Request: fold
Amino acid sequence: MTRTEGPRLLRCAPIAIGLLLSGCLAPGAGPGRAGPPSGGAPDPPAADQIPSHPSMVRLALPRVHVRHGAFLLPDGTPFQWRGVTAFALAEQVAHGREAEARRFLAWAHETGFTTVRVLAMASGLFRLEPEAGVRALPRVLELAAADSLAVEIVALADTASYPGLDLDAHVAAVGHAVAPFAHAVVELANEPYHPSQRRGLDDAGRLEGLRARVPAGIAVAFGAHQSDESAAYGAGDFLTVHLSRAPRTWQQVARVADLSRLARRTGTPVVNDEPIGAGERLEPGRRWAAPDPFFALGAMNRLFELGGTFHCDDCLWSRVPGPHQRAAARAFVAGLRVVPDGLRLDPWAGTGPVAAFETSRVSSVHAAGSGPRSWVVGLGVSGEPGISWRRDWREVRVVARRTGVWVWEVERVPGGDRVCDRDARSRPAAPESSIPSGRSPDDSER
Reply:
């Protein structure tokens, strides 16, 4: 959806789009909604029983439906999740540095992001006591709404550092704090398997019990599994994945195609929530500094109808990023916009409209389409890609041509031979890569 320009506060049209996520599922609509576990924290109140925060932004919003592994608006068009890491926003608000939070949110909005990802507690990167984080959440949500940004709240982080914390009570408190706000979704835990988390938190049954502490009507993800191919946490309303940081750049980007298969397996929207991040200098396996691979990540997320979250060094601290990171962020958003927002794409099996390409100059090609139009992304391109189209397809234009990545728009020729019929899109695609999917603690280093 397009954004409107105007005064910073009360940009109602973009807010009405960006805040839709909280209504992704009606109460009880998600698979396997469990009842509250016995003992521990009391049941959280229903959303309509929680008093309004006196100064919050409240809008009457249409409900988003979840179908076919996607966030959909009522008219059937998809909501485009263009996210950015903003871990420290609650810490900034809790410790009297609201001006820093405002600067970051303004930058995120101006760059074209629609969602920010925020920690409700922490002890590693910075210290944010769970109680202070919960108290800060309403103000964080107000500030985000003013910049037309939805908020993904990560309830549990660094839980091993808080051995006395009642996890059920904390998750219930997070749910209580965010329930009045239309633009909040909850991720229960950041990498539940990580050594910084309490032992046993990665158990799917444990996470299901925690999910029951969040008021119905708020979309909940369990957190990223150690394997970016696992459907173990697919019982949530949406699924967050941390893409494996493979050693080769273009193979890593190509793995995004595998996430679309995960969406089809679970029937839930998938958000590529913490891929490799951007930095001011290259750190192999941890940070990229060039913008073009981030453009490719964005384009692949869009091609395969995935939510995408941009990750970067300065984003960890919710600081306006340095110049290389800003360039990477702009490239990421540009990639997510290679296809018009109103179109819902279906992935092609194999290479779709592509008849051939020069394998010595292109690592891989990926395609998805809507009706007679399709988009093709070529990765690892060096020189001319030597691409040719099947007999019933023709090139409309080169949408983008950047270092290592090209994007084409093609269309079916009326009355063509239909070498690739549309039904091929529903057949299982061959694996796109053989990169191991397991993610070690080193992979997830923030």
